[in-house]
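By way of example, we now present a protein record of this kind:
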Amino acid sequence: MDRPLDCPGPDGAHSFARALRLVASDGEILGPRRKAAVPVKSVRLALSADDSFDVAAGRILGDCLDHFVANIPALRETGDAEAVHQLRVALRRLRAFLGLLKRVAPANPELATAASSAKTIAGVLGEARDWHVLREGLERGPRAFLREEPGFVALLDAVELRRLRALQAARAAIGAPSTQQFVRELHGLVARRAWREESEGLAESESARAFAVKALNRLHKRALKRCEGVAALEPEQRHRARIALKKARYAAEFFESLFCQKAARTYLRRLAIIQDQLGEDNDRRTAARLLSDIAAEDASQETFGAVCFLRGWRAQAQQLGAVATKESEKRLRRLKTFWR
């Protein structure tokens, strides 16, 4: 018999039970009841202009947790690559909001533990995602030119083998006791409003809107600073710029319903463009690293030749991406904020 675990938010509206159910015999997390295990995207969060920060924080964290748990069945039962992606998105959103909470409760150990656990789980999922993206990239582009090359066929086989291994590791990580503990501890953190413990500068009556304005201003300014001259930055600096954009974007998504919806969607759409371009650049660099790993493990001349060809292919794509990134940076500097 299934045993529901209910988690009402500060306003009583959020129900954790709609996403999570537990098996009474061993406490294993299964996820939501649904006829078929399919990946689930996050839904747009609707906050009220009258919401306190406590109410908003509970709903945002609960939403992130719902999104994470809802995608567990699809990964465990089918190994769907989209489920891996959605789990990673849920964890990124969660970590972004925990980062906001850390600023008001920097000494709170529960927030730090939750963020650390989320990062660890995301790391395993990221490995599966990286190999999947590499395989998809090889199938979409170079395969038309290298279809009959023995080295390319061997390379595809090597990539697929590593992708399956990484996927197996991701499925094991999602079913691990440590992940179940992470979900339960986060559930308890939300139920007790743990961000209030040892908080600094957070008034009991502070509104979600007032908090949002301060947070969005800070994250927007940081993103603009990190993205200055982004096309010419070193890889590690581009990575920091991409992370800054991502944090600004997630925060905007959390709080957009508190402000003008049309202006918010415009902001988010334009922010996403340069973020996606930097993401593609990061994918190319990750692919180069993975291909180098394969070349180091496989000493055959044919595989090495295929890897060399692909390096040239990706270098050309990177040059085209730099031009697009420059244009996006100009649009980012002209971007109007939607919060007041």
